[in-house]
Amino acid sequence: MTAMLLLLLSQVNAAPLPATDAIAHSLRDETARRAFTVVLFFSRECPVQRSHDARLLELVRDFASKGVGFIAVDAQADASLEKDTEAVRARGYPFPIVVDPEGTWADALGVRFSTTLVVLDVRGRVRYRGGLDDDRVRLSTEATPLARRALERLLAGQEPERVETKALGCVLRRR
């Protein structure tokens, strides 16, 4: 699976996409800057996304200081720079949202649901793909912090216990 993803990732790197920070981003550029980059697939309308915003911001706060990069991707058919810029402000995201209505990044990374997180290493290899945690919308204190555990292990030089987990978001509406 990883070899196929790497091949697709190299194809998608050729076309930088616009983002809410007024910079065109490519996956190659994003992954080249840090040991690990978290790519979050975003949906403005998804209630699961909305309910996990606080946990996502906590993850960013805890790991950005350790050199982990964060970027979101709106791969919905109706992705809009204007609406995503508004969402960044309203939600307090300290990272940009890339606008990708064609779903190029989602296709390259094998993502079908919003809230899916993909952790890439500096060489563009997928090291984790799945959910932030295993809680859909109740946000219980017993939720397993899947992405957090994966990042902790990766930063410690170990492989994540689970490389792929289920993302509990909404289906990305595609063209």
3D structure, described in words:
The chain has seven helices and five strands; from the N terminus they run ααβααβαβαββα. The protein has 175 residues and is an alpha/beta fold. It has a single domain, classed as Glutaredoxin. The longest helix has 12 residues. The mean pLDDT is 89.
Short descriptors:
175 residues, alpha/beta, Glutaredoxin, 5-stranded mixed sheet, 7 helices, 5 strands, 15% strand
Précis, in short:
The protein is of the alpha/beta class and 175 residues long.
Number of domains: 1
Indicate the overall shape. Answer: globular
CATH superfamily assignment?
Answer: Glutaredoxin
Question: Structural class, judged by helices and strands?
Answer: alpha/beta
* pLDDT < 50 stretches: none
CATH fold label: Glutaredoxin
Question: Overall mean pLDDT score?
Answer: 89
**Order of strands across the widest beta sheet?**
3-2-1-4-5
- The DSSP helix count reads 7
What is the chain-wise order of helices and strands? Answer: HHEHHEHEHEEH
CATH architecture: 3-Layer(aba) Sandwich
Approximately how much beta-strand content do the residues carry? 5-15%
The helical percent reads 25-40%
Number of strands: 5
The CATH class: Alpha Beta
- Spatial extent as radius of gyration: 15 Å
